[in-house]
Specification:
Helix content: 25-40%
CATH architecture of the largest domain: 2-Layer Sandwich
Strand content: 15-25%
Structural class: alpha/beta
Order of helices and strands: EEEHEHEHEEEHHEHEH
Distance between the termini: 23 Å
C-alpha cells in the first residue's frame, strides 16, 4: 500500500518551498520530520501546468508516486500564485487544498489592532516556533522583507515589525543612485572597505546585522523577557545568523513545519 503524504507549499515573493510529510496512523496527522523538500523561483507568469511539470519531476526523482499525496496545504504572500497552486492541487492531485489565511485555528491569540490583518506567512512561522521551541520567543523571517514577531510567555502574538530585506536594500541603493553598482550580498571580511563595491557590501551587511541585533534588544526590553528565545528562518537566515549573537536557532523549514501543524489543527 502506498503511504499517504501531505504536500506543504510556501509561496514567497522570491522563492517557493515544497515540503513532503509522511502520514501517521492517526487521522489527519503527519510526521514531524520533513521527508523531502524542494525550492523554486517565484514566477507569477508560470502556469499551473508548468509548476506541475517541475513538481512531478522532483517527485519522480525521489521515487514518490503522485497518488500518495492525499493532502495539500498552502501559505502564500503572492495572491495570483495562490490560485495557480490551487489549480495544480485540484487538476494534478485531485485534492482541494487547505489555504492558510485569516480566521484559521492556530492556537495563538493575536493581539493585533486587526487580527485578520496578520499575514499568513507570519502566522505559520509563529505556530512552528511555539510548538518546536516554546515561549516566550522572537521569530525573525529573513526573506524578501524581514519580519520580526514576538510571542509572550503565554504564547500570544503581541506585535512585531517589518523591514526591507537584505537584497531589497541592495537593490534600492542601486536603483535610486546614479553611480552605485548592483552587488551580490555576502559577508565582508572587514567593515573598513577600500573600494566602492566592498563599501556597499560592508554597509548593507553589517548595517543589517546592527538592525537585527538592535531590534532583538528592543523587543526583549519591551516584552520584559530578557531570556526570550530567538529563532531565525528565511532564505538569508543562515548567512546572517553567524554575525548576530542574539540569534539562537536557525530553522530554515520553520514555516513548512508550521504550515503542517496549522493543517492538522484545521483538517
Amino acid at each position: 500500500m502506498t503511504p499517504a503524504r501531505l504536500l506543504a507549499i510556501k509561496i514567497g515573493n522570491t522563492n517557493l518551498a515544497f515540503g513532503l510529510y509522511d502520514a501517521r496512523a492517526e487521522k489527519n496527522s503527519f510526521s514531524e520530520k520533513l521527508a523531502h523538500s524542494w525550492r523554486a523561483e517565484t514566477r507569477v507568469e508560470k502556469t499551473a501546468d508548468e509548476y506541475a511539470a517541475l513538481l512531478l519531476t522532483h517527485l519522480e526523482s525521489a521515487e514518490i508516486p503522485p497518488a500518495s499525496i492525499c493532502a495539500i496545504a498552502i501559505v502564500s504572500v503572492v495572491p495570483p500564485l495562490t490560485e495557480i497552486m490551487r489549480e495544480l492541487a485540484v487538476n494534478y492531485f485531485n485534492v482541494e487544498p487547505f489555504i492558510a489565511g485569516a480566521g484559521v485555528k492556530s492556537g495563538i491569540q493575536i493581539k493585533y489592532d486587526d487580527p485578520r490583518a496578520l499575514g499568513a506567512d507570519r502566522l505559520v512561522a509563529l505556530v512552528g516556533a511555539k510548538t518546536k521551541y516554546g515561549t516566550p520567543c522572537i521569530v525573525i523571517d529573513l526573506g524578501t522583507a524581514t519580519t520580526f514577531n514576538a510571542l509572550d510567555a503565554r504564547g500570544a502574538f503581541i506585535g512585531g515589525a517589518i523591514a526591507p530585506g537584505l537584497n531589497m536594500s541592495a537593490q534600492a541603493l542601486h536603483e535610486f543612485t546614479a553611480k552605485l553598482p548592483r552587488i551580490e550580498i555576502a559577508a565582508p571580511s572587514n567593515a573598513l572597505a577600500k573600494n566602492t563595491r566592498d563599501a556597499l557590501r560592508s554597509g548593507i551587511f553589517f548595517g543589517y546585522v546592527g538592525l537585527v541585533d538592535g531590534m532583538i534588544a528592543r523587543f526583549k526590553q519591551e516584552m520584559n523577557e530578557a531570556n526570550a528565545r530567538v529563532i531565525a528562518t528565511g532564505g538569508m537566515s543562515a548567512l546572517l545568523a553567524p554575525y548576530c549573537p542574539a540569534i539562537e536557532i536557525v530553522d530554515i523549514n520553520l514555516s513548512l513545519d508550521g504550515l503542517r501543524m496549522l493543517y492538522e489543527m484545521n483538517a
